[in-house]
Design a protein that fits this description.
Elements (H helix, E strand, L loop, with lengths): L7 H6 L7 E4 L7 E6 L3 E6 L8 H18 L18 E2 L5 E6 L4 E2 L7 H17 L18 H14 L2 H6 L1 H9 L2 H12 L5 E3 L8 E4 L5 E4 L6 E3 L1 H12 L17 H15 L5 H5 L1 H22 L11 H19 L1
């Protein structure tokens, strides 16, 4: 993308030259992210405030975490934004989109798929380390950046609402998926019991633990730091561990239409648990340890619900490139859920 595509006021506010070299980076679908080569190298990002409607909350949450970590874990690498000329962490363009600037963390790479137990271990340990280091911070200092993001009960209610409002034709198109979703409704009751009983401790969690949200050293398999901190907010360990399981144990992604390719890779699963618990186990209660098998099933189910609800409402939330994509995604996640339910 040409430098002209970045508003001049954004460049000026961050003291970036208008003749800097610019290149798009990353594989995310929500924000626009650019590598800026100026006197130094930076990462400049336009936040999609249509999705994240409270960008100031993101900035405040991240700054609160950064200050705590700098004081209590000074050696821990936590990406923090570079302030603008006015001292702000966000600069708004004429369209109302906020921009933020980070220093480039050199000699690191991201990966989109887990290919080894070492990667799985390192990623899980990395996300676990973040939560462990923030274990004693006051959660009331943080606000949700996306309300009820992983609330399984609420997501099931959304599904039921969309099902009731969908046309008969649309319901017929996904009749099998609807039946499967209802088959696993018992997971909602299990989730509610865990939350209402107080069995799970509320902590500050990442809430989007995909493998490409961690930076690896480019010359070794070591995890360097966690990135994409927009959903850093109060949550439960099942959210982070569960999404790691959901996105890592199968060799194919949620976009795969051929469900015969979906598999449960036991060595990857074991490496995820070993890595996560290497950091988190000492902070977890016995009740939480017993809830570990629930985590992956719960997060896989919640994504099946969300994809199917979006299909029923007419595909208004997730970007699609073909008409049945959300149906394919829901079927994919339901098949993975079936496999997980048999394996763990």
């Amino acid at each position: 993308m040409a430098i002209a595509s970045i508003p001049a006021r954004v460049l000026q506010n961050f003291n970036l030259k208008e003749d800097s070299l610019v290149a798009p980076i990353g594989s995310g679908h929500i924000h626009q992210t650019f590598l800026i080569s100026d006197t130094e190298k930076y990462v400049l990002q336009r936040v999609n405030s249509n999705v994240f409607t409270k960008p100031e909350v993101i900035a405040t949450n991240n700054r609160t975490a950064a200050n705590y970590l700098a004081k209590n874990f000074p050696a821990y690498l936590f990406p923090t934004t570079i302030a603008s000329q006015s001292g702000a962490e966000l600069v708004y363009d004429d369209q109302g989109f906020p921009w933020r600037l980070y220093p480039l963390i050199e000699n690191t790479i991201t990966v989109d798929f887990v290919t080894s137990t070492t990667e799985a271990y390192e990623a899980a340990a990395g996300f676990g380390r973040l939560t462990k280091n923030l274990n004693e911070i006051d959660c009331s200092l943080f606000q949700p950046t996306l309300d009820r993001f992983h609330d399984l009960d609420w997501r099931y209610q959304q599904f039921e609402t969309e099902l009731a409002q969908a046309s008969e034709q649309v319901r017929k198109e996904v009749a099998d998926e609807i039946d499967q979703v209802k088959l696993y409704k018992y997971l909602v009751a299990e989730y509610n019991q865990l939350i209402e009983s107080g069995a799970l401790k509320e902590r500050i969690t990442h809430n989007d633990t995909k493998i490409n949200n961690i930076l690896f050293d480019k010359d070794s398999p070591k995890a360097v730091c966690i990135i994409d901190l927009d959903t850093l907010m109060p949550g439960y360990f099942i959210y982070d561990l569960g999404d790691l399981v959901r996105t890592c144990v199968s060799p194919v992604s949620e976009e795969e239409a051929d469900i015969s390719k979906i598999e449960f890779r036991r060595p990857i699963y074991d490496a995820l648990l070993t890595g996560y618990l290497s950091e988190m186990k000492a902070t977890m209660t016995q009740e939480e340890l017993l809830a570990i098998p629930f985590a992956g099933k719960m997060m896989t189910y919640i994504m099946a619900l969300r994809f199917l609800a979006d299909y029923l409402r007419g595909n208004t939330y997730y970007h699609i490139s073909y008409a049945d994509q959300n149906k394919v995604r829901a079927r994919n996640q339901l098949h993975l859920l079936k496999i997980l339910s048999q394996a763990i």
